[in-house]
């Protein structure tokens, strides 16, 4: 899915904070709960990962991963199940979309066809289906 004409406004009061290496353990905890897709210890090095904290606990995050110019992938969009429905995913995606567009690039993401909730969210934010793709992951 790609987004050239974003829709919506960020409607949360919580701060979106850049994530850094010290946050990696909490990022992995959140990834383990939500399974948004491939994520490794060095994925944060792709840059621009942002999170929302409740106290000291990371409860939502999104970032950027692949950069096949002029596209930039929005990745690892996830929210702790105890914090679902608060608009965190929506806000984090919008921030990433605006950051990518402001850099002169086109945001894209991929989503499983079975993830109807995410597809509905992405469409409401201005994403359009560009094309289906097949992904094969090889794990050691």
Describe the protein's architecture and organization.
The chain is α+β, with helices and mostly antiparallel strands and 140 residues long. It contains 3 helices and 7 strands; from the N terminus they run ββαβββαβαβ. The protein has a single domain (2-128), classed as Gcn5-related N-acetyltransferase (GNAT) (Aminopeptidase). Helices cover 25% and strands 22% of the residues. It has a 5-stranded mixed beta sheet with strand order 2-3-4-5-6. The chain has a two-stranded antiparallel ribbon with strand order 1-7. The N and C termini lie far apart (29 Å).
> Which class best fits the helix and strand makeup?
alpha+beta
Q: Would you identify the CATH architecture? A: 3-Layer(aba) Sandwich
Strand content: 15-25%
Largest sheet: 5 strands, mixed
- The tally of structural domains comes to 1
Quickly list its features:
7 strands; single chain; two-stranded antiparallel ribbon; alpha+beta; five-stranded mixed beta sheet; globular; Aminopeptidase; 140 residues
SSE blueprint:
Layout: E1 2-3, E2 17-18, H1 24-34, E3 50-54, E4 57-64, E5 71-79, H2 88-102, E6 106-108, H3 116-124, E7 127-128
Parallel strand pairs: 5-6
Antiparallel strand pairs: 1-7, 2-3, 3-4, 4-5
Put the structure in a nutshell.
With 140 residues, this protein is of the alpha+beta class. The protein has three helices and seven strands.
């Amino acid at each position: 899915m790609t987004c050239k004409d974003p829709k919506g406004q960020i409607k949360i009061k919580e701060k979106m904070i850049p994530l850094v290496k010290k946050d990696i353990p909490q990022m992995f905890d959140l990834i383990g709960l939500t399974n948004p897709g491939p994520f490794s210890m060095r994925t944060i090095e792709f840059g621009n990962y942002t999170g929302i904290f409740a106290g000291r606990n990371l409860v939502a995050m999104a970032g950027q991963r692949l950069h096949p110019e002029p596209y930039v992938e929005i990745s690892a969009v996830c929210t702790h199940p105890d914090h679902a429905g608060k608009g965190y995913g929506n806000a984090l995606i919008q921030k990433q979309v605006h950051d990518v567009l402001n850099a002169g690039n086109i945001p894209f993401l991929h989503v499983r066809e079975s993830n109807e909730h995410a597809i509905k969210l992405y469409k409401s934010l201005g994403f359009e289906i560009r094309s289906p793709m097949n992904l094969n992951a090889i794990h050691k």
